[in-house]
Design goal:
Its main location: Golgi. With 506 residues, the protein is an alpha/beta fold. Helix content is 34%, strand content 14%. The longest helix is centred in the first third of the chain and has 30 residues, at 24-53.
Length: 506
């Protein structure tokens, strides 16, 4: 086991002067001279440390006179020639989820050993996440498909940046037979091995949109006792429908149980042709609503979980989320987004919520997100992450069946409904991001942006129904208490087209 990283301070403790203070110009000169000497001494020490450590060290220098960050830190980073050896040095290590000859065993101990050798075992956060998504290797054939895929990727990059999550975006088939919807299993499994420092791997389909940039997964609370989480519909689970649990968004803990689970899932796929064909017939026979004998990843997941409840569902196993939009179907979300936005704006317009309207750096997003979530709790009905019966922002809006890249959408949906729905969801999410930059879109389906006034969205900066309100409290009540989405929207001063949209009643 390597020695812990040495830490060398280049900033002395502030000296306490008890004698009469010298004249200001002399004090300033002496202070600068002292700082220069201290900094030079610190650099000399750093140089010595670097000589001792060799090239496998990283150094961060902080200018003298800065606050608590004024440390010079030398952290050894193991290089190609540095011990100790880890599981990566095993020639039989396989990254593949479809390798029946080299199954990875003892992963929990191997991962713990790697973390310990890097000094990470005691310091790692239980919520460290790597998000994985991807698209096909070839250009999209659907109209504007590549443009939509770029916008969908930007949405995930935005969410990950705001929440300190790494994003791995893959466009390769890591197994020649595991293509299309089966391609997710090999890359998720490989990501677990490539990122032993990550506690969770979060798969998100390319056609899923983050529509609540404030929401963080409750990994260390609600999901702390589970290894795999996906979204399900209780009534469909009771019927054992192949649509009961969606495979488009899931989070999996980086542990041996999860590796075994992914291997079992993969063995129902096309990498094992005979088993794949056999499972296809089983799924069609045993799962409701399944009219094809082709085994897809979702029917395999549903069959695994619902046919093996005692073995796979429960603590230290799998959990099916049914109480918020861990992944919501776009058809029941997009027409309500304008109403959701209006209710959030109404909460922020309150005179009791000036802190929510403060301008702030983007890096402070999580703090302001927590304050905003606390403010809307109780004022806006519904659970955090959104739900059918409330008006909270949905975490993820999934455009299942729209197929933006291939263009081969489900014939149940029109091209217009898919395109407009995606634009509405993406702009709804973009507005949450743009706010930190001082802008917002000119309307729910308008790609133009407008600068936000100071103290946005305070009521005295807005016009409701075309008239300036003198009693913003009444506006808040009318928005917060309404049970219908028949809401006429707010207007920014001198921009009469801003949100001049009336939602349909439902």
């Amino acid at each position: 086991m390597s020695a812990p990283p040495p830490r060398v301070s280049a900033s002395p403790a502030a000296s306490k002067l008890h004698a009469t203070a010298p004249p200001p110009f002399l004090a300033a000169g002496r202070g600068r001279g002292r700082d220069a000497l201290v900094f030079a001494a610190g650099v000399a020490v750093a140089t010595a440390v670097l000589v001792l450590l060799g090239s496998s060290a990283s150094v961060v220098l902080a200018p003298a006179g800065t606050s608590t960050s004024s440390l010079l830190v030398a952290s050894p980073i193991p290089g190609p020639d540095d011990p100790p050896r880890t599981f990566y040095d095993d020639p039989d290590l396989s990254y593949s989820a479809a390798d029946g000859h080299h199954r990875l065993t003892g992963w929990d101990a191997k991962r713990a050993s790697w973390l310990r050798s890097r000094g990470l075992l005691l310091r790692r956060s239980p919520e460290k996440v790597v998000m994985v998504s991807g698209s096909q290797p070839e250009p999209c054939t659907g109209e504007a498909g590549d443009h939509l895929m770029l916008r969908l990727l930007k949405n995930k990059l935005d969410y990950c940046r705001l929440h300190g999550i790494k994003l791995l975006y893959n466009r390769d088939f890591l197994h020649p037979a595991m293509t299309s919807y089966w391609a997710k299993i090999p890359i998720v499994r490989a990501a677990m091995v490539a990122h032993p420092d990550a506690e969770w791997i979060w798969w998100v389909d390319s056609d899923a949109v983050f529509t609540d940039m404030d929401f963080s997964l409750p990994l260390s609370t609600r999901y702390r006792d589970y290894n795999f989480v996906a979204y399900g519909v209780p009534k469909d689970m009771e019927r054992k429908s192949w649509l009961a649990i969606n495979a488009g968004v899931f989070v999996v803990r980086n542990c041996q149980w999860s590796l075994d689970f992914l291997d079992e899932w993969a063995q129902m796929g096309p990498a094992f042709p005979e088993a794949h064909a056999r499972w296809g017939k089983v799924f069609k026979k045993d799962l409701a609503d399944k009219d094809s004998d082709v085994a897809c990843d979702q029917s395999a997941l549903v069959y695994m979980l619902l046919s093996n409840r005692d073995r796979l569902l429960g603590k230290e196993k799998a959990f099916v989320e049914t109480e918020y939009f861990f992944m919501g179907w776009w058809g029941e979300i997009v027409d309500r987004l304008d109403g959701v936005a209006a209710r959030y704006d109404a909460v922020e317009r309150r005179r009791s919520s000036p802190e929510l309207r403060r301008r702030h750096a983007e890096r402070e997003h999580v703090l302001y997100a927590a304050a905003r979530n606390a403010a809307v709790r109780g004022a806006v009905p519904g659970p955090p992450g959104g739900w059918r019966t409330g008006w909270r922002r949905p975490l993820i809006t999934h455009f299942t069946g729209c197929q933006p890249c291939s263009g081969g959408r489900n014939p149940t949906y029109t091209k217009e409904s898919c395109d407009v729905g995606m634009r509405r969801a993406l702009l709804f999410a973009d507005d949450q991001v743009l706010r930190a930059y001082g802008f917002r879109h000119a309307g729910p389906l308008n790609d133009s942006v407008l600068p936000l006034p100071f103290d946005y969205p305070a009521a005295d900066n807005l016009f409701i129904l075309g008239r300036k309100q003198s009693k913003p409290e009444l506006v808040v009540e009318s928005y917060a208490s309404t049970t219908s989405s028949c809401v006429t929207y707010t207007l920014v001063p001198n921009v009469p087209s801003y949100y001049d949209h009336q939602d349909g009643c439902h």
